[in-house]
Amino acid sequence: MPIAQNPLSVEVTLPREDVALLTVEGYLDVDTATEFQHHLANQLHHGRRHFLLDLSAVPFMDSSGMNIILRVYQEARDLPGSVHIIGPTPAVRRILDLTGVSLTVPVSATVDEALALVDRQTDPEAPDASPRP
C-alpha cells in the first residue's frame, strides 16, 4: 500500500464541553477529506455542537475539504450549533472567499475570537451580542 503523499494531522482539543477545536495540518483534499470527516463525525457523536476549525497550517484545500466544512456546518446548524474557521492561510482564504464559503461560515483570526462568537450565538443577552457599528 503506498504511503500518503500529503498526510493530514488533526488534533482535537475541547476548550469547553460542547466545543471542539480541530487543529488541522497538511493538505485538505480528496485524499485526506475522509479522515477529516471522521474526526468531525466523532465529535458530533460525542455531543459537541460548536466546531472551531484551525486551518492555519493547511497550505491547500480543494472542493472535498470545502464540502466537509459545509456538511458539518449544516449538521451543526440543525443542533443548533456552529462552525468557525480560524486563521486560514492566504491560499485557503482565497478559495473560501471565491466560493462564498466565507460568507456562510464565519472566519476568525484566533481561537479566542471564535469562542467569543460562540458565546454571542449561545447567549443573545450577552453584552457582546449587540451589533457593532
Q: Explain this structure to me?
A:
The protein is of the alpha/beta class and 133 residues long. The chain has a single domain, classed as Transcription Regulator spoIIAA (2-Layer Sandwich). 41% of the residues lie in helices and 23% in strands. The chain has a five-stranded mixed sheet, sandwiched between helices. The longest helix is centred in the middle third of the chain and has 15 residues. The N and C termini lie far apart (56 Å).
Low-confidence region ranges: 128-133
Q: Gap between N and C termini, in Å?
A: 56 Å
The total of helices stands at 5
Mean pLDDT: 88
Helix content: 40-55%
Number of domains: 1
Structural class: alpha/beta
Total DSSP E strands: 5
Shape assignment: globular
Based on the coordinates given, report the CATH architecture: 2-Layer Sandwich
Please write the string of helix (H) and strand (E) elements: EEHEHEHHEH
State the CATH class. Alpha Beta
Gyration radius over CA: 15 Å
Q: CATH homologous superfamily - what is it?
A: STAS domain
CATH fold type: Transcription Regulator spoIIAA
Instruction: List the strand order in the largest sheet.
Output: 1-2-3-4-5
Strand content: 15-25%
The description of the largest β-sheet is:
5 strands, mixed
InterPro entries: Anti-sigma_ant, STAS_dom, STAS_dom_sf
Organism: Streptomyces ziwulingensis
Family: Belongs to the anti-sigma-factor antagonist family.
Protein name: Anti-sigma factor antagonist
Gist of the model:
It comes from Streptomyces ziwulingensis. The protein has a single domain, classed as Transcription Regulator spoIIAA (2-Layer Sandwich), CATH 3.30.750. The C terminus is likely disordered.
